[in-house]
Amino acid sequence: MASNSPIGFFDSGVGGTSIWREVVHRLPHENTIYLADSKNAPYGEKDTQTILDLSIKNTEVLLEKGCKLIVVACNTATTNAIDKLREIYAIPFIGIEPAIKPAALGTKSGAVGILATKGTLSSSLFARTSSVFASNIKVIETMGTGLVELIEAGKTNSMETRMLLEKLIAPMIERKIDQLVLGCTHYPYLIPILKELLPPSVTIIDSGGAVARQTENILKSRKILGESQNARHTLYSNLDIEVLAQLTSDAAKNLRVEFLEF
Ligand code: DGL
Q1: For residue 134, is it within any domain?
Q2: Which of 166, 183, 225, 258 is the most buried (most CB within 10 A)?
Q3: Residues of the chain predicted below pLDDT 50
């Protein structure tokens, strides 16, 4: 049995489109709906209850639109809310967490950097994953305070962003990391600048590919893989559609970017 109902995505803003694009690329016959809750960004500075309330609000919108599966395209919402979402709703949820495991397996220097939001780094889910996979290595956790705001404002490639990133990663370079985990879905848009700033020995790790593979596995196992020959993608922002449109225009055909109050 196939299902051409859309896959739903939500994030605190435009960042989750870095995950959405990986899923769209891997699963070209799926219709998708993306919610950018930019009005409430950043989630990373909010408390767990507020992040859960916002995640429930976004889930309700996606369910109303008939989604068959939801990708929580936000590390902060996943690490703070996905367990509760799975308790409340029967629909399958795929989450995203900082990829500590491949970093811990891949490091030769024994030092790994993790760039993520305050909300992710302080979550109990992150603490658990970290203690399982990274107890024998040095983990340098850094809050990317300010980065989400710059990306939301369309300043991804600005000098301001470059200078902030340089300051944030300097202590990690000093401590000889050879793996940098991007623990926020906004950050893959910073990879071009990061590649210029980091020594070539540092591998940058993000979780987009893993989420796309996991999405495919779940759709297959539940027999709800899409078969649309002309898949459609609708991306909604509750703030400003311009940055969302800019970041996604090259990713797929049949793409609409619209304003929605939610
Ligand atoms: N994209 C979100 C994440 O992956 C950003 C969090 C925020 O809004 O602070 O964590």
Answers
A1: yes
A2: 183
A3: none
